[in-house]
User: Fold this.
Amino acid sequence: MHDKHLYEYAVVRYVPRIEREEFINVGLIMMCKRKRWIKIAIEPDFKKINAMGACHSEDDIANQLSGLKLVAEGNRSGGKIAELDVTERFRWLSAVRSACIQTSRPHPGICDNLDETFDYLVNELVR
Assistant:
């Protein structure tokens, strides 16, 4: 018998102009509290981003996204937040903010395989 895994995910978005509320999905964060598991994929499509009239450079966007990745992965160079447990890091990463990098509200789900579900969600929502 396989265990089912309760998970949460949030889509990472680039918002070129906050006041217009338009965005492009550039990544995904997924977390399973019981397994103490978190995974992030960051895949900005700069062709789409530039077509929307991005007011930030590709380097600035990539730098902001790499900061999120460091925190999600628990890398110490991500600062004090990166040292928190998986659930607290996910909550910080998916918190509402008005910045050019935002996330969707967290969404729950249940699955048999976390990695397969993560890959499916990245393909459906980001690529």
Summary: The chain is about 35% helix and 25% strand. The chain has one domain: 5-125. The chain has a mean pLDDT of 95.
